[in-house]
Amino acid sequence: MKVGFQLLTDTEALWVRVLKAKYNVTDSLPVSIRRSSCSRLWSGLASVWDAISDSVSWSIGDGSQASFWFDNWLGRNGRLVFDCLAPTVSLSVMVRDMTTSSGDWDWSRLDSLLPSVILDQIVAVPPPNGDFSPNTLGWRWNDNREFSTSSAYDFLMNYGLHPLDAAWKHIWSLEVPQRVRVFLWITLHQRHLTNAERFRRHLAPSVVCSICSLGVEDMDHVLHHCSMARNIWPRVVPPSMLDEFLHRPFITWLRDNLLYQHSNQLLAEGWSCRFAILCWLLWKDRCNAIFNPIESNRDDPLIRGSILMDECLHAFATRSLEIEVGKAAVVGVFRDAHGSWLGGFARNIGRCSVLLAELWVVHDCLSRAWSLNFRRLVLETDCMDVIRLIKSPSTSRVGNNLIELILNCTRKDWQLVFRHVPRSLNRITDSLAALGRLSTREGVNLSVPPTGLLALVEEESESDVAAHLGAHTWGSANSVACFNMHVDFGV
Fold this sequence. Notes:
- By secondary structure, this protein is of the alpha/beta class.
- It folds into three domains: 61-140, no CATH class; 165-319, no CATH class; 327-485, Ribonuclease H-like superfamily/Ribonuclease H (Nucleotidyltransferase, domain 5), CATH 3.30.420.
- Helices cover 42% and strands 10% of the residues.
- It contains 22 helices and eight strands.
- The chain has helices at 2-9, 14-22, 40-47, 49-54, 107-113, 116-123, 149-158, 165-171, 178-189, 195-200, 219-225, 227-230, 239-246, 250-258, 271-291, 301-315, 354-371, 384-391, 400-410, 427-438, 454-461, 464-469; strands spanning 56-59, 136-139, 327-336, 341-351, 376-381, 415-420, 444-446, 479-485.
- The strands form two sheets. The chain has a six-stranded mixed β-sheet, with helices on both faces. Strands 1-2 form a two-stranded antiparallel ribbon.
- A hairpin with a 4-residue loop joins strand 3 and strand 4 (341-351).
- The longest helix is centred in the middle third of the chain and has 21 residues, at 271-291.
- It is elongated, with a radius of gyration of 28 Å.
- The model is unreliable at 313-325, 464-481 and 483-491 (pLDDT under 50).
């Protein structure tokens, strides 16, 4: 995994150029690298290439290479095609095509194509711009976009080379009755006594399906292809998805539906639980029809499934509260060398990593400071990683275009000092965090401190904090210290 990541990202390394030339690899992110004749190293890379390519995502620069729907570019979220609200999408739409002529995201289109949870993540990504450097690849499973062995191991164990591992764990957390979970566990082991299994144990005369007589009666046939199943699935799966739904390999079909979270908004909310219950009812009705036809339940399985779903929702109501972790806002306060309030701002930036939120703080602070005509600025942050990225931008794989915007601000004709401070000196911006979460994408300007902060501002203007603010000035009343913070991540 690490060698594969380096092959994609360390494009100037000699060994990378030699291998790419030898095996004629010209794409930045090839779909496959299999060759009929190759070295053991290349053969090993080819065997795990699907996992490698799924573990990298684009950091958007000019937005020209990355497909909006079919490439990973929104961090851990994955490909947006699985979240699309529209029945069809175009392969040719690039990320840059989803912006307006003014350079902002085209929210009028995006609002109708994607759910709000995805839009909250797009808010935190600066729109692509032709003046930015080209897109770059980074490691998808770390916020700093750098490869780590631990994140690669977690990915492989849960989603990559062991596709059933995540399903094994997930079935025990489904909000369905225990009998349904046990059924799914036996199904994944493929140990149900179907005709195929009973014939193998010399308990049945034939492997043929007892209901439709059209195939070998294994669990794939029972839940997927039998006439009983084919009478149910078209009634709950949208027509545009039905063909793919009915023709997936059984284990893939079972895993993808059990692990369903946001993979396609055309399916109903709570699809994993509904799918599990319908599979269990199909098996139960089948067994009754074959072995106990007199007492077989003639009620519609969909109606019974809906009733059981309602019971499940009621039973698990105490656990159904969803906390919106990851929603962030940026806040900042401008004060002079004496601690007096000069201005502030608060803005909701949707869902993003802590590091990306800290970079947004710096960008918004510099932009607003310039517009307020401050030309001598001490920018203070409690995040050391931000200062490191600004001083050494070439080492970063995260927020490349955002860092470019910050660097463009620093090149203006003013005097800037970046300084790391302990969080204990950020009490005012701590107090403004809640206001930031309630604000809009455009944000709010705070020309005067909110009423609840007046006492704290006066207290700090008379305390050691004011002395700290005045510790770095150029002998001018126009010297400003800016305290800033990424936000409080939460509800």
